[in-house]
UniProtKB/TrEMBL annotation:
Its EC number is 2.4.1.-. InterPro entries: Glyco_transf_N, UDP_glucos_trans, UDP_glycos_trans_CS. The keyword ATP-binding does not apply. It comes from Oryza sativa subsp. japonica (Rice). This is Glycosyltransferase.
Amino acid sequence: MEDSAAAAAVAVVTVPFPTQGHLNQLLHLSMLLASRGLAVHYAAPEPHLREARARVHGWDAAGALRFAAVRFRAFEIPGGYASPPPDPSSPFPGHMMPLLEAFCDGARTPLAALLRELSACHRRVVVLHDRMAAFAAVEAARIPNGEALGVHCLAASYNVGWVYPAHRLLVEHGLVFHPPDACTTKEFVALAKRMGQERRRAAVAGMVVNTCRALEGEFLDVLAQIPSSDGDKLFAVGPLSPVLPDTRARGSPEESARPRHECLSWLDKQPPSSIRELAAAVRGSGQRFIWALRDADRADMDTREAEAAVHGARLAEAAGGLREEIARGVGVVVTGWAPQLEILAHGATAAFMSHCGWNSVVESMSHGKPVLAWPMHSDQPWDAELVCKYLGAGVLVRPWEERHDVTPAAAIREAIERAMASGDGAALRARAAAIGEAVRAAVAEGGSLRQDMDDLVAYLTR
């Protein structure tokens, strides 16, 4: 009773950065905290609330209750910012910059109003903000009972590479940290620096990281010793997304009643460990595949939804060279959203070709699936280094140094064959499976990650 009263006296406000991977992580964290009795307010502009709600997946019936417990708080940001179409010649989504800058400038006032409202009726208000939305920490410091923790949506090891690019762990494993200005745009680097200045303006208590010791234990030890503008507390509470059992159709009443994406029915018919998600050269590989084709996100959500059918038709046309394979049942092409978690958890999935966003890496490793790494921008080159060289559970499709060149189909096929049909591939798959088992043990009842989340809740409700 005392614990529940303490939780009720605390309001948690989660403030995501308005890009898909960041929205997801903060929503999963919100659901986990709400399931422990905390009053959690997920605060974002209305279009991004819709996006986060629409794309959250992988949770069971208990997860649906967690979702229902989260209080979605919409706020307006000034309109009028540009919404250019994606630039197909640029891997980095620079077309999103007007939205991101408008968010960081315009969300302060409505967020401040929400914090004042909650401050008046709670003992403590804790703001868990994406580190790229660090202005929220400044607003938390303005209320007398406010506190802030930064949520790091990248790998913990990324920060180690940032601070110590010649650290022993990097040197021993041959890891190369590519500086942000080589992986993003100067406009995004400027915004990141501005958010760093915001963090230094506020007294942030600590940092929450979507990772675990099975993935980055040595790096977490190093990170805990690095002085940070995010404070001295470090909570490693990943994976935030659910770790699923095999998603093959089982026929139980509960599973039969749950809607399933049509690509999972196709997976049910495939032999174990035979599928990987590919974006190129699938025909020449001779392997079974799911090819998930999705157009780039738009800054203007309404425009994105209105154009979805047009883009879907165009993407389907782009996959026309695979009609024969699709007709023979060798592969499936999904245009638009695909249930990535369920695909990775399926017993027929053997490996995952990925851009190596941190969410995708965590989800793939948590389900024991090796990665064919094809990084595009931002932290993705580092994540590819971590998976392929440190964890030993991935194959690099294209070296980052060759990012400006067209990757030939032969090189892609070689990466596939190395992962799937060689002695090296057997070792990769075994290593990924071992990592998946370690993560699964950590998230099980009594596992270390349950304790890590309990430690975070205890700190919030102290």
